[in-house]
Design goal:
Length: 205
Amino acid sequence: MVCGFLRTILGSAPDIEVVDEAHDGAAGVEAVRRSRPDVILMDLRMPGMDGLTAIERINELADPPHIVVLTTFDADQYVLRALRAGATGFLVKSTPPEELIGLVRAAAQGHTVLSPSAARRLVAASTDSLSARDRARELVASLTEREAQVLAGLGEGLSNAQIAARLYLSEATIKGYVSRTLDKLGCVNRTQAGLLAHDAGITGA
């Protein structure tokens, strides 16, 4: 029933096509291989393989899509674990339909999308983990000064164009820095890198 509702809502947008659906984690991974979507809306609690495991498996694929968690559970541990697993966003199922369409568009462009409650929980949880902070600081120490500046921008949710304007560099140059920074940090997307920046206590200028 939920899938049918989402298909109707998203299908009403002229620039969005629902290409596949699955009802458990393992089937979801196969659906990604089969249909190669740009964005996935992923539940966390499903039969068999759960959503967190599915997120990890999907991010092991070549050129993985953006994954947005859409669930009824927004407890601290779920938000943080989903983003660390490689999700680019976390929304609750009570998100209004008209907002959901815009958030899917934003996710397709690589932006982090968080429901207000998830954002509050993320800030509280990410500032309360000593081991995460220590690990993040060790990773950041491997970056050059410019890469660290770019990471700070990612931590603020800035686009490549906004980071370029801040650092007086071209957008193409920033794109290269973002790619190298993600590789060095072992992050699969900008959201993971931004989370790591918060853990490390990095802020922009």
